[in-house]
What does this fold into?
Amino acid sequence: MKTVLFATGNAHKIEEANEAAQKYGVRFRQVKCGHPEIRADFVDEVAKDSVLGCYAQIKKPLIVEDTGLFIDSLNGFPGVYSAHIYRLLGNKGILRLLSDSKDRRATFHCAISYADEKGVKTFLGSVPGTITTEERGEGGFGYDPIFLPAGYAKTWGEDRLAKKNLSHRVKAVESLCKWLNQQAPPGRKPQ
Ligand code: ITT
It folds into this structure.
């Protein structure tokens, strides 16, 4: 099993990433890093900048993940501000912002950046869907109870299995793990 440090304050991310990485023989271990997030247009810029800042502090290979919920009718808001807006408005606040909106399309975008002495590599994952008209389900975290992935009848708050099988995070984690395994075949001691 290869262990990779994951700089995050969000334990849900570690749990979901570990579930997705298990079959690749990869395990993430949480580390805390005080690097402040930059303002940017998209999650990949935030993840790249953060991983470089955290690598400079921790000086060991590690990943940072940035995720955002981009709502079409709000021109991509809350996007890279998703964490701040969730704390400020919560799901009820997002539903209020969309109360008059017929266009409820939204996409979760996730970027995972990996840094080591060779530089930075970034992996992306996204899932399109719509925002419900009320919160549905107690599972998951963050915006899960108001996000209905395209082609599904249940939100990620109601159907954890659907999220586990195909989320923005799972897609990005799988790309990262495949790449990690190409760098050092399973069985070889991690750097
Ligand atoms: P970090 O320490 O890793 O930055 P964070 O929680 O601040 O943790 P982000 O900025 O990447 O992470 O996440 C933005 C917010 O979007 C996060 O606080 C959640 O409210 C929400 N979010 C992230 N991933 C989500 C997911 O898979 N499902 C639902 N909401 C999610």
About this structure: The helical segments are 11-21, 43-58, 82-97, 160-165, 168-183.
